[in-house]
Amino acid sequence: MTEMTAELPPGRRVRLSLDRDGIIKRIFMGVIALYLVAALALPLYAMLSKSFVTYGFDLARYEFQVSDETGTVWSEPVTAEALNAELGAVPADDLRSSSDGRLTATTFFPDFSFRSPVKYRMRGTTDDAPWLVGLDLKNTTDWQEYDSNTFRRINLRPVKSVGAQNYVEYFSNPTLFSSIQNSLYIAVVSTVLTVVFAFGFAYAINRSCMPFKGAFRMIAMMPILVPSLLPGIALIYLFGNQGMMKSLLIGQSIYGPLGIVIGSVFFTFPHALIIISTALSIADQRQYEAAESLRASKWRTFWTVTIPGARYGLISAAFVTFTLVITDFGLPKVIGGQYNVLAIDIYKQVIGQQNFEMGAVVSVILLIPAVVAFLVDRQVQKKQVSLLSARSVPYQPRPDRRLEALCLAWCGTMAVFIVGIIAICQYAALIRFWPYDLSLSLKNYAFDRMDGGGWAAYWNSIKLALMTAGIGTVVIFTGAYMVEKIDGFKTGRGLFQFLAMLPMAVPGMVLGLAYIFFFNNPANPLHFIYGTMIILVISTVTHFYTVGHLTALTALKQIDAEFEPVASSLRQPFYKLFARVTVPVCLPAILDISIYLFVNAMTTVSAVVFIYSTHTALASIAVLNMDDAGDIAPAAAMGMMIFYTNAGARILHALASRRILNRTQAWRLR
């Protein structure tokens, strides 16, 4: 018998249709992706475009005529370029300008007198030849006649062009170019020291039976609660020109690379410790037993088992530390002295010289090492493999008095360093007038009598922190849920993931400058938020978006993927599943995201230093402004207010978390 086979006639390819939940999820993800585009991608593009914009005076665009003293007979028309070639009044280098440059028209007339009856005519030879008469802008090819008194008020305006001239000028300036070398040197030295200190600390906590581990962990996290400017202030009181321990430096100055490195180790230490401690907390006891059975020495076991097992954590900690140091602005500003780094160059170009185009150039240069470090770190993390299997035996440290004594000494030294820095700041905040009147007083807390924004700046910071924690947590967790739980849509999810990871590679100061170019443009429909608290919230949420996103994804991946199909089969909309199952299960991560955003909103400086206004001044900015004004003790006092606020928020967070989690996470104990 022969089998009869029948083929279906060709037809259209079957495609799964989206249900209502799928459409809503895509809309939510699209809205948050649009937020990331408007808050990050477009500002960065505006900044990159601005870095290629140059301004200069094109003298060939202007023509002049001069009358005799009767004002009836006029000379032949002559361009400003021809007059300058004859007189040499303006060198070629001085013709380059910023967008706000001005060149007085009388420069080309050495015999000019505003009392003279001589009259002047002026016009543009092209349609783009602007000049100012006082504050009135003119741009015309028709002759305009002025008397001498009016002519002295005329200023030529620069014209815009596009090119790489800004980059050429930057790299041809030895002073500016040296900032790159200085930044890399500081970042490398600080990274090496921080990783070494953090590794020793993490090893003592995870691989020894040392006492007081809880206390050391708490002390190690204290630098996260203060702005990066605070260690600089403490070092000034310790080793500055009138410091109490200045003699210990043996003639060296704390103002410069030495102070920046010491302060950088302080504020990056907890970040490196968290990563390395996580790597060292996971180990297989069998590997150490095998090394012991092969009679390997402890030193060899350390280099052949411990270090290889923690190498990915070490590499990741190194890149995170490197990025934090090279992009930090506050510490070099306080204690850097004349030692220029890239972040300070941006501040000087924008705030000091109002040269926004050159500030954009330095920002792009600063962005390069941060992006490279981020990309290398991501590649390293992809190669990381699981160190524990189902048959693994968790590592249990054995008592060893010599090791415990060494670990206790190491952790004790770091604890004294951390507590000492903060204690010195508190001491400085209470002294009447260092070093002449060492009596204690609260007068340094009278912030309303000093520059910097007063107590209003402190309350603005709390308002910013609460808004950032509330709004940011909702946006970040919702975005992570949509990208993790959506079906299909691979391309869209990949694009969203890219946008969500991008903020980690963008320094805060670069983001702040990008916001000036993007949101301060009157043609931008979002221009209305510039100078308000809203833009500070958007900047802060965007700056710290990636860590919160990764935290949310980690929690969401722990939830069984079967919940969504089951809810769908029961005809339950996804938002009910989200509210009744997903949020309660992920509540620990949600609370962690909220306190992370709160603390960073209180301490951030670089992300907001360019975009705050007089009525939205912040406590961290007040520390910077008071230090600039020479009010170092009040700056320390405001820094300590930030520390105590963050410490209080941490305590309240811990208490609230315990109470809330006891009610929502009881299922974990069953």
Written description of the protein model:
The structure is a single chain. With 670 residues, the chain is an alpha+beta fold. It has 24 helices and 13 strands. The strands form 4 sheets. The chain has a 4-stranded antiparallel beta sheet with strand order 3-2-6-9. Strands 5-10-7-8 form a 4-stranded antiparallel beta sheet, with no helix packed on it. It has a 3-stranded antiparallel beta sheet with strand order 4-1-11. Helix 1 (20-51) packs across helix 13 (356-383), helix 5 runs parallel beside helix 8 (257-280) and helix 5 (174-207) packs across helix 10 (298-327). The longest helix is centred in the first third of the chain and has 34 residues, at 174-207. It starts with 19 loop residues before the first helix and ends in a 6-residue tail after the last helix. Residues 386-390 have low confidence and may be disordered.
Number of beta strands? 13
Distance between the termini: 63 Å
**Broad shape:** globular
Assign the structural class, choosing from mainly alpha, mainly beta, alpha/beta, alpha+beta, or little secondary structure.
Answer: alpha+beta
Query: From the alpha-carbon coordinates, what is the Rg to the nearest angstrom?
Result: 31 Å
Strand content: 5-15%
As laid out across the biggest beta sheet, the strand order is 3-2-6-9
Give the biggest beta sheet.
4 strands, antiparallel
- Low confidence ranges: 386-390
Portion of residues in helices? 55-70%
Please work out how many helical segments DSSP would assign. Answer: 24
Overall pLDDT score: 83
